[in-house]
Specification:
mainly alpha
Length: 88
C-alpha cells in the first residue's frame, strides 16, 4: 500500500550565514529575536502549505500570535513585523 502524498514540505534548509544577511540583521535591529522568530514561523506556515499561503494577513497574524504565545506577542506586532518583512 502506497503512502499518501503529503501536502507541502516537511523540512526546508537554512543557510549557515542566515544571521549575517543584512535583511535579517535589520529585522533583529528593529524587533530583536522576536522579529526573527515571527519571520521563521511565517516561513514554516508558508512551506507547510507548499510555496505560498492563501490566507488573509489578519488571520495569519492571529495564528502566529497563538503559535508563539499571546503572553509573548500580540497580533498587531506580528502584523507589523510581517508588513516590515515585505518592506525589507
Amino acid at each position: 500500500m502506497a503512502r499518501p502524498a503529503k501536502k507541502g514540505l516537511t523540512y526546508f534548509p537554512k543557510d549557515v550565514d542566515y544571521y549575517n544577511d543584512y535583511k535579517i540583521m535589520e529585522l533583529l535591529e528593529k524587533y530583536g529575536p522576536l522579529g526573527v522568530t515571527i519571520y521563521d514561523v511565517v516561513l514554516c506556515e508558508i512551506y507547510r502549505n507548499g510555496y505560498y499561503l492563501a490566507e488573509p494577513i489578519e488571520r495569519v497574524a492571529a495564528n502566529i500570535a497563538r503559535v508563539i504565545g499571546n503572553k509573548w506577542v500580540q497580533k498587531r506586532l506580528v502584523l507589523q513585523v510581517i508588513l516590515d518583512c515585505g518592506d525589507i
